[in-house]
Write a structure and sequence with these properties.
This protein has helices at 17-20, 49-61, 72-91, 105-120, 151-160, 177-183, 206-215, 235-238, 263-268, 303-319, 321-340, 369-378, 391-396, 413-423, 426-429; strands spanning 30-31, 34-35, 37-38, 99-102, 138-142, 163-167, 188-194, 219-223, 242-246, 257-261, 279-282, 287-289, 345-348, 359-364, 381-382, 384-386, 402-406. The chain contains 15 helices and 17 strands. The strands form five sheets. Strands 4-10-9-8-7-5-6 form a seven-stranded mixed beta sheet, with helices on both faces. Strands 13-14-17-16 form a four-stranded antiparallel beta sheet, with helices on one face.
Length: 434
């Protein structure tokens, strides 16, 4: 059996971050002689021992190829792999057949974009024609997108002659929904947008965007990387057609993620990657493909990683996603208040009343983001610096880089206070202000 340090399921008990930290041994170390304050979970989260144990247990007890053998280990590996699919699918409100394993959200978004490109070339079953793009058709994204939800659509537009348009953001970081209503029109075929901006931390109006898209028959694609670890998530209830998320941002391993799709959408999409394990019959001239999700899972799959991700979502479920969100909301409020009180700090996406996750990006007047990050690191505080794979959004706010502090369920109020105390000394240290 896989050992587990996951808490017992609880939907009402408040989250005790100090107690949970015992499950994350990496948080007990010292960095540069200081207690580690890890505020970079937006880039990658730490892993509880239950996740590490799940992967190790599989690799030492049941390691074998899945869906490819009749011997005992192969059968057990396949069962564990498909059980993991059911567990992770359930975490986002989906059925197992609606979850495609990918290597991460980037792979999932590229899968969708290239599959639609294949449909545009006439590939796939007759139902695939619904996705075919013609010159002049439109793909609508937002100005807040991570490059992973921008560049695949740029490439698809270049291959098909479609036009890429974007919904702008207001000065406070919220989406310009009036502009969205104008941009999404009769030529719109795809609306792709992030659930939560990885720079701004603001939860976007999913229902409004989905309604605009579906009113004109467009397909919706949701980037849920920054929402899946932090908010209760029911993808079917959100009404999106397709969605992606990454395991390493939600306490899980690297190299695994999920692509959710409505059953009719996945059934109609042609494959992107082709090869073994995604076919029914093959001749030297042609091939017939399996139904979803296997149609999109050619080649060797991330088996131990999928099993580790299932352990991660069991851990999150044990804590309770409502408790996670409530805890991180309190950290976000404490962090935001503290950041606003430090002279020379400019917050990005400081929209009063906006729904948020526990993430803030900011600029320090007179000090480059990389220098801020190194100063904080010397004091044991780990944050993200740079453009966070969102150059257009930074350009919108007149920046090339920012500092981002992002929390998770294992962070405490003391973590926030240590971070704020360290940050308050940055400008004086670099001679940029008191």
């Amino acid at each position: 059996m896989v050992s587990s340090s996951a808490p017992a399921p609880s939907s009402t008990a408040p989250l005790d971050a100090a107690a949970l930290r015992a499950d994350f041994s990496i948080l007990g170390q010292r960095v540069n002689g200081e207690r580690l304050v890890y505020l970079d979970s937006g880039a990658t989260s730490q892993k509880p021992q239950a996740v590490i144990d799940a992967e190790v247990d599989f690799l030492t007890r049941a390691n074998s190829a899945v869906h490819r053998g009749a011997h005992t280990l192969a059968a057990e590996a396949t069962e564990l792999f498909e059980d993991a699919r059911a567990t992770v699918a359930g975490f986002v409100g989906a059925r197992p057949e609606q979850l495609v394993w990918t290597s991460g959200a980037t792979a999932g978004l590229n899968l969708v974009a290239y599959a639609i490109g294949n449909a545009s070339l006439g590939r796939g079953a007759p139902a695939s024609a619904r996705f075919a793009l013609q010159p002049g058709d439109e793909i609508v994204i937002t100005e807040t997108e991570h490059h992973a939800n921008l560049i695949p659509w740029q490439e698809l537009a270049a291959r098909t002659g479609a036009v890429l348009r974007h919904i702008p953001v207001n000065d406070d970081g919220t989406l310009d929904t009036d502009a969205a209503a104008t941009l999404v029109g009769e030529r719109t075929r795809i609306v792709a947008f992030t659930h939560v901006s990885n720079v701004l931390g603001i939860v976007n109006p999913v229902a409004e965007l989905v309604a605009l898209a579906h009113d004109v028959g467009a397909v919706t694609v949701l980037d849920a990387c920054q929402s899946a670890p932090h908010l209760p998530l029911d993808l079917p209830a959100l009404g999106v057609d397709l969605a992606v998320f990454s395991g390493h941002k939600m306490l899980g391993p690297y190299g695994v993620g999920g692509l959710y799709g409505r059953a009719d959408v996945l059934e109609a999409l042609p494959p992107f990657l082709t090869g073994g394990s995604m076919i029914t019959t093959v001749t030297l001239d042609e091939a017939a493909y399996l139904p979803p999700p296997q149609r999109f899972e050619a080649g060797t799959q991330p088996v131990s990683q999928a099993i580790g991700l299932a352990a991660a979502v069991r851990y999150l479920d044990g804590v309770g996603m409502g408790a996670v969100h409530g805890h991180e909301k309190a950290l976000e409020a404490r962090m935001g208040e503290g950041l606003r009180s430090i002279p020379g700090v400019r917050l990005l996406g400081d929209a009063p009343g906006a729904e948020r996750v526990g993430l803030w990006a900011f600029d320090v007047d007179g000090v480059h983001a990389h220098d801020v990050g190194q100063f904080l690191d010397a004091r044991g505080v780990a944050v993200r610096v740079g453009h966070h794979c969102a150059q257009p959004l930074h350009r919108r706010f007149g920046l090339t880089a920012s500092v981002r502090a992002s929390s998770s369920l294992y962070n405490t109020a003391d973590d926030v206070d240590v971070f704020l105390d360290a940050l308050s000394g940055v400008r004086a240290f670099f001679g940029a202000g008191a």
